[in-house]
């Protein structure tokens, strides 16, 4: 399909400059849809709808197909995500070590459930299957930091720590 | 050819055939669910499994496996039947058994195969799907609980329609056929997806709960909207057309239809239809008997016989050939007037004057089949797709599947512009002739002209000062386009004409023909010029001679005659000049002034409302006859339902009047066709019986000649925008306003502005604006986008409210101001 040159597209609330730059970078490369979507996700933290329309227009792909790709790969997110992604493992080892209580505690403290994001966009919470460190079960991760041998008390410590971190 | 054996039968097929094709060719039925002959093979459902001796040990899908020499195929062993049963059981696992309330029942492949394979119990159990049903539009209901994931809807919407509304979304058990953001369906509503869905997942809402499939009476006929001439099957019951039925074997288009053909039939059953004659008494139209009404009309016309110049008649190119023939015979023959015309004159002059001068015949030298046989298509106006959508589908298919090069010259962009490899030259509004002249000059300058064509010297002289700049494009664009066109093995120009395109007249047809003739792109298959008439029988109207000859007045002059009192009696068969002819005020004044006007129509149109006598006419579904499509294909129209109310066909009306005036009378329309075949040279030897279901393309004998035409320079008016008119997606004339489909896709008039112009004028999407020209002003809503270039406004012409003909006067471009109301 032919690729359209950059044209001005009215932005709905979000600034599309960066998305346009990412598209520019891959515009003429074959198989550019995945890297473009990954680039956009990196830049915006998720893939906002206006960027889907932009990518559709500029790469001449149907928006529906992009949506199909985005929902197929678990790596993509269609809603804003928190600055801190809390993952609690509910794999077999963690489960038997009481992962359920850890997740329940997070739910209670943060007021959000699985795959949800706090309104202030500070936290996103996700239950995940085996994080690959079963020896430290039950396990939690906040972005790239790992917390093993989780307890209810540690949940509070984690929340205090990340509450204190700046948002920007 | 490849030879193979299927179930013991010897078969020889083309080498690109699949096993499924080969079996079908020799009458062996292999069940399919995800396969459709129009679509790329998918191989997703595993219903069509067969056994090939050379590949022992596994079952293979016949719909995706190409044949090879000496293959020995079995299509129904015990093992195959077992496998198919398993496929069905698995499909039925999550599928709700909704048959009692499903509109597809009786037409559902899953239901039929379940019956055929006697799957009366399931070894597995699972929960049924629980997807929300999409009821959010009035045309297509999507119940994904019934979906069997065959992917046909997504494939047809991508491969043929090129809209791409659907895709598989999510994964694994969550996977389903969805749309962008899993939202409601928002598309062109052509219904293609509904037609190919093998189950009841996609349904036509207007047909919902109207009838069971087996109770429908099926009548093969021809669509009555545009000149493409798609064949369709009407499903009717109890005197009403309830739906159109998909038949993949019907017509050049394999059953494909646009929204008008698929969902636009409701005008037939509209409660706004006229059901009794009306006569104006004390200034008001009042119901009358046919005797009264016809007596009034015939006495008026017979008085007119002594002063034929005071009589004029306009006919819509929606009538059948037989009716138009009778119309011509009545007015030109019996009454003796030459004042007859259709579609405001200009809309068909491309054929009657342009094609005649360039090719020696009043028809296109190409036919629709040439679209896919070409190597390069040059489409004039990006919205050829919107005026003739099914030809748009042919273009899509040609470009995507066969790699046909696509070039577009247009005053705005459109869907075709986005096809793979398409190149669009956006020219200044109204400069089509200048552009073709510049192309011809470039062909000559580049030494690409064929030697010795008639009229070359005159053309050379005429285009000597043609230039790209005059058309508002660059010299490089012209040179490249001229070269591509001339050097293509076969190149075809596609030129839509119609009431919305005032510049698409004889001069443009000549200018375009010049390019084709100059480059030798004519007189061979896949090449030439396809002039696409707007209405279902535009070509027939020309063939039957519904245009002024000799000293006769054309439509514009007829209206002038009404205004100045020279024309005293006006007979209008199905035309709606008030909305569709240029300069509405002038038309209204003229019609108010004419002494006696009779209108036959399906509806009390804006024009009929002004008449002295209104005759209720039949729709295409209530009569038989023939239409001739833009590709010169003469096709049978067949009566599906009885006339609504007291309506009579135009054949009956004209026949009665003709007899009352002492003219010829006919027992049925078939007799008229016999006479057509005897007197209209192109139709020589045709019979309605020999037309059968496919129809027949009549031949043309070309004598191609270059006809120089001067380009009129439309001088831009400072500070104003150029208004170009045309067709809105899926409307056609003013009749589609009575069809549910088109009215859902586009219910109201609008003006489309470029984002930059809109910003400068501080106008936003949906704002009401006043568009003002020298002849008047009209209020419409605004669409903002990038399809139209800066400095241009586009507006469709079909609507009674916000009718753009209030502000146009028939010139190529109208300069207007646009201001927020
Ligand atoms: S109705 Fe036509 S445009 Fe809409 S989804 Fe179906 S095939 Fe696509
Ligand atoms: S909706 Fe119909 S056509 Fe589309 S995938 Fe499902 S079953 Fe097939
Ligand atoms: S309106 Fe034209 S393109 Fe659409 S179905 Fe009818 S004949 Fe075909
Ligand atoms: S089960 Fe939790 S880390 Fe493996
Ligand atoms: S019809 Fe062959 S796999 Fe579906």
Automatic annotation (TrEMBL), chain A:
Keywords: Oxidoreductase. Pfam families: 2Fe-2S_thioredx (PF01257). It comes from the Bacteria. One of its GO terms (molecular function) is oxidoreductase activity. Its EC number is 1.6.5.11. NCBIfam families: PRK07539.1-2. This is NADH-quinone oxidoreductase subunit NuoE.
TrEMBL record, chain B:
Residues 138-166, 177-207 form the 4Fe-4S ferredoxin-type domain. Keywords: 4Fe-4S, Iron, Iron-sulfur, Metal-binding, Oxidoreductase. Pfam families: Fer2_4, Fer4_Nqo3, Molybdop_Fe4S4, Molybdopterin, Molydop_binding, NADH-G_4Fe-4S_3. PROSITE patterns: 2FE2S_FER_2, 4FE4S_FER_1, 4FE4S_FER_2, 4FE4S_HC3, 4FE4S_MOW_BIS_MGD, MOLYBDOPTERIN_PROK_1, MOLYBDOPTERIN_PROK_2. It comes from the Bacteria. Residues 1-79 form the 2Fe-2S ferredoxin-type domain. Residues 216-272 form the 4Fe-4S Mo/W bis-MGD-type domain. The keyword 4Fe-4S applies. Residues 79-118 form the 4Fe-4S His(Cys)3-ligated-type domain. PANTHER family: FORMATE DEHYDROGENASE H (PTHR43105:SF14), RESPIRATORY NITRATE REDUCTASE (PTHR43105). This is Molybdopterin-dependent oxidoreductase. It comes from Geomonas subterranea. The lineage of its organism: Bacteria, Pseudomonadati, Thermodesulfobacteriota, Desulfuromonadia, Geobacterales.
């Amino acid at each position: 399909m032919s690729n359209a040159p950059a044209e001005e597209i009215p932005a709905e609330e979000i600034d599309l400059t960066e998305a346009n730059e990412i598209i520019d970078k891959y515009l003429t490369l074959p198989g550019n849809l995945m890297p473009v979507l990954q680039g956009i996700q990196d830049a915006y933290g998720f893939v906002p709808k206006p960027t889907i329309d932009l990518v559709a227009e500029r790469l001449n792909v149907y928006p529906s197909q992009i949506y199909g790709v985005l929902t197929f790969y678990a790596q993509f997110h269609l809603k804003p995500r928190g600055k801190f992604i809390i993952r609690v493992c509910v794999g077999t080892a963690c489960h038997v070590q009481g992962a359920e209580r850890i997740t329940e505690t997070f739910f209670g403290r943060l007021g959000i459930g699985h795959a949800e994001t706090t309104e202030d966009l500070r936290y996103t919470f996700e239950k995940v299957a085996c994080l690959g460190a079963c020896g430290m079960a039950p396990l939690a991760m906040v972005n790239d930091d790992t917390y093993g041998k989780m307890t209810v008390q540690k949940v509070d410590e984690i929340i205090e720590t990340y509450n204190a971190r700046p948002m920007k | 050819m490849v030879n193979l054996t299927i179930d013991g039968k010897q078969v020889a097929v083309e080498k690109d055939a699949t096993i499924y094709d080969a079996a079908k060719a020799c009458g062996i039925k292999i069940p399919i669910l995800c396969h459709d002959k129009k679509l790329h093979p998918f191989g997703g459902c595993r219903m069509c499994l067969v056994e090939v001796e050379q590949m022992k040990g596994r079952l293979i899908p016949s719909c995706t496996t190409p044949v090879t020499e000496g293959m020995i195929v079995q299509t129904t062993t015990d093992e195959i039947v077992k496998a198919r049963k398993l496929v069905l059981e698995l499909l039925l696992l999550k599928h709700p058994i909704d048959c009692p309330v499903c509109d597809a029942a009786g037409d559902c492949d899953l239901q039929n195969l379940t019956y055929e394979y006697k799957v009366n119990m399931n070894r597995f159990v699972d929960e049924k799907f629980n997807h929300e049903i999409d009821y959010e539009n009035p045309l297509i209901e999507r119940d994904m609980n019934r979906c069997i994931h065959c992917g046909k809807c997504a494939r047809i919407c991508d491969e043929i329609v090129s809209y791409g509304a659907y895709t598989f979304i999510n994964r694994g058990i969550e996977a389903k056929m969805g749309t962008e953001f899993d939202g409601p369906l928002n598309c062109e509503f052509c219904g293609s997806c509904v037609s190919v869905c093998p189950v009841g997942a996609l349904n036509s809402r207007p047909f919902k709960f109207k009838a069971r499939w087996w109770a429908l009476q099926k009548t093969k006929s021809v669509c009555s909207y545009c000149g493409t001439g798609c064949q369709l099957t009407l499903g009717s019951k109890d005197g009403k057309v309830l739906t159109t039925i998909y038949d993949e074997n019907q017509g050049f288009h394999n059953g494909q239809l646009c929204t008008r053909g698929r969902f636009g039939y409701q005008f037939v059953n509209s409660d706004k239809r006229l059901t009794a004659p009306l006569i104006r008494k004390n200034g008001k139209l009042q119901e009358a008997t046919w005797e009264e009404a016809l007596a009034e009309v015939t006495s008026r016309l017979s008085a007119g016989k002594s002063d034929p110049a005071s009589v004029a008649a306009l006919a819509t190119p929606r009538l059948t050939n037989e009716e138009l023939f009778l119309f011509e015979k009545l007015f030109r023959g019996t009454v003796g007037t030459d004042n007859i015309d259709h579609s405001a004159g200009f809309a068909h002059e491309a054929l009657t004057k342009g094609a005649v001068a360039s090719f020696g015949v009043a028809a296109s030298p190409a036919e629709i089949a040439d679209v896919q046989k070409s190597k390069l298509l040059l489409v004039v106006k990006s919205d050829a797709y919107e005026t003739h959508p099914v030809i748009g589908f042919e273009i899509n298919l040609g470009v995507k599947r066969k790699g046909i090069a696509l070039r577009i010259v247009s005053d705005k962009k459109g869907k075709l512009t986005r096809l793979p490899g398409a190149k669009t030259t956006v020219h200044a509004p109204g400069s089509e002739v200048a552009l073709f002249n510049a192309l011809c000059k470039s062909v000559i300058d580049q030494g690409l002209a064929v030697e010795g064509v008639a009229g070359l010297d005159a053309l050379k002289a005429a285009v000597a000062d043609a230039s790209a700049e005059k058309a508002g494009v660059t010299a490089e664009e012209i040179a490249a386009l001229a070269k591509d066109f001339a050097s293509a093995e076969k190149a075809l120009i596609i030129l839509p004409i119609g009431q919305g395109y005032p510049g698409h007249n004889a001069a443009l047809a000549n200018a375009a023909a010049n390019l084709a003739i100059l480059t030798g792109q004519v007189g061979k298959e896949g090449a030439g010029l396809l002039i696409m008439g707007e209405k279902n029988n535009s070509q027939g109207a020309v063939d039957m001679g519904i245009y002024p000859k000799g000293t006769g007045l054309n439509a514009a002059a007829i209206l002038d005659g009404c205004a100045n009192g020279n024309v005293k009696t006006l007979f209008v068969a199905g035309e709606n000049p008030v909305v569709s002819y240029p300069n509405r005020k002038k038309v209204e004044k003229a019609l108010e002034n004419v002494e006696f006007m009779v209108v036959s129509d399906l509806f009390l149109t804006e024009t009929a409302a002004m008449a002295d006598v209104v005759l209720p006419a039949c729709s295409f579904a209530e009569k038989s006859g023939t239409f001739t499509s833009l590709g010169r294909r003469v096709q049978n129209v067949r009566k599906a339902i009885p006339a609504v109310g007291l309506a009579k066909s135009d054949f009956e009306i004209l026949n009665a009047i003709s007899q009352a005036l002492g003219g010829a009378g006919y027992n049925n329309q078939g007799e008229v066709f016999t006479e057509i075949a005897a007197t209209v040279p192109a139709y020589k030897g045709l019979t309605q019986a020999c037309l059968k279901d496919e129809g027949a393309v009549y031949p043309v004998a070309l004598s191609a000649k270059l006809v120089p035409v001067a380009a009129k320079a439309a001088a831009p008016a400072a500070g104003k925008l150029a208004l170009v008119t045309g067709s809105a997606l899926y409307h056609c004339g003013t009749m589609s306003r009575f069809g549910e489909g088109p009215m859902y896709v586009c219910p109201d008039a609008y003006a489309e502005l470029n984002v930059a112009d809109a910003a400068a004028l501080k106008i936003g999407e949906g704002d009401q604006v006043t568009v003002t020209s020298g002849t008047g002003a009209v209020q419409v809503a605004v669409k903002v986008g990038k399809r139209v270039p800066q400095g241009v406004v586009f507006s469709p012409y079909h609507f009674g409210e916000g009718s753009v003909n209030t502000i146009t006067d028939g010139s190529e471009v109208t300069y207007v101001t646009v201001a927020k109301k």
